[in-house]
Amino acid sequence: MVQFSRLIFSLSLFAAAFATPVKRTVAQVEADIASISAQVTTLDNAIKAFPATGGSLVAALTIHTDATSLETTLNQGTSDVTATGTVSEADGRTILSAVEAFEPTILDALTQIAAKQPAFAALPIGGIPALILQDLQTLKTDTVNFSNALIANAPADLKAEATTLTNNITNGFNTAIAAYQ
């Protein structure tokens, strides 16, 4: 019985070691932002490739798959930013610049998907506009969470600029979401 108790205690310690949150680094956050940027570009390209008329279900589902991948990466990025904590002025500027660099791509994707709502609605299988709406709502939530984590950890003098960036992107989401409601 004593050996069984020691085994349980040892397994508990082992499990606790893996349950302890791991401190992340700015380099990890920058890698997350690079992944987010690449996935935003992939999503934007898939949306641009979807024609204004005569699109296919496969192309629409590719957009959904790309959105789902981006959602996962945004959530991981939020987790990593939160675990990193407050960043230095130089790191904050680097991170903000990296996000600003792909802001136009996000806004283009949102503009394009809003404009192509009739093409998605015209697909022979219903439900695609509802799926896109769900993706847009989830991406908006995930993007806001990621942005809020970045703002919380940014140096004080960069918070206003980061907030403006977040508001611009959120407004883009609101416009795209409105097209599908």
What do you see in this structure?
The chain has 181 residues and is an all-alpha fold. The protein has one domain (24-180). 83% of the residues lie in helices and 0% in strands. It has helices at residues 2-19, 26-49, 57-84, 89-115, 117-121, 128-153, 159-180. α2 (26-49) runs antiparallel to α3. The longest helix is centred in the middle third of the chain and has 28 residues, at 57-84. It is elongated and about 50 Å long. The chain starts with a helix and ends with a helix.
Q: How many domains is the backbone divided into?
A: 1
The residue ranges in which pLDDT falls below 50 over 5 or more consecutive positions are 4-22
> Roughly how many Å apart are the termini?
62 Å
Q: Structural class of the helix and strand makeup?
A: mainly alpha
Q: Which percent range describes the beta-strand content?
A: under 5%
Order of helices and strands: HHHHHHH
Secondary-structure blueprint:
Blueprint: H1 2-19, H2 26-49, H3 57-84, H4 89-115, H5 117-121, H6 128-153, H7 159-180
Helix pairs in contact: 2-3, 2-4, 3-6, 4-7, 6-7
Pfam families: HsbA
InterPro entries: Cell_wall_mannoprotein_1 (IPR021054)
Protein name: Hydrophobic surface binding protein
Summarize the structure.
The protein is mostly helical and 181 residues long.
Keywords:
single chain, 181 residues, mainly alpha, 7 helices, 83% helix, Cell_wall_mannoprotein_1, signal, Hydrophobic surface binding protein
